[in-house]
Specification:
Order of helices and strands: EEEHEEEEEEE
Distance between the termini: 40 Å
Radius of gyration: 14 Å
Strand order of the largest sheet: 6-7-8-9-4-3-10
Largest sheet: 7 strands, mixed
Helix content: under 10%
Shape: globular
Length: 128
């Protein structure tokens, strides 16, 4: 039996399921991801294009830059996906859209040279 990861947008209009093992989970520090999400850094999980099924609604897409297409919910605006020509057989989903996001821990950084200088990531820090 394969793993099933359920996800959705904030309002629930878009729902999807990913089957199987993720291809990777990573931090992305690029300026484009910051602008798309409104967050100082994004965390994505990659799944093969054939491993994910949209079960309700539709992911609205737009081309954010040459070779990159981003997806979101057209109703609530939740950021959901990023697909790039650099990884043509997979799509990257924002980890926060998954019900079991705590199980999807990032293990590498993309575009670390674009990391905001004040952002200090620590996996042991517990805020109050």
């Amino acid at each position: 039996m394969s793993e099933i990861y359920l996800g959705r947008c904030l309002c629930g209009t878009v729902r999807f399921e990913a089957r199987g093992r993720p291809k990777g989970v990573f931090w992305c520090h690029c300026n484009s991801c910051r602008r798309h999400s409104g967050a100082p850094v994004s965390v994505f999980v990659g799944f093969g294009n054939d491993a994910v099924t949209v079960t309700e609604g539709a992911i609205t897409t737009f081309k954010s830059s040459p070779g990159t297409t981003r997806g979101f919910c057209s109703r609530c605006g939740s950021t959901l996906t990023c697909a790039t020509v650099h990884f043509p057989t997979e799509t990257h989903y924002h980890v926060g859209a998954f019900d079991r996001a705590s199980e999807l821990q990032p293990s590498k950084h993309f575009f670390a040279n674009e990391q905001l200088p004040w952002l200090q990531l620590s996996h042991t820090y517990q805020g109050t």
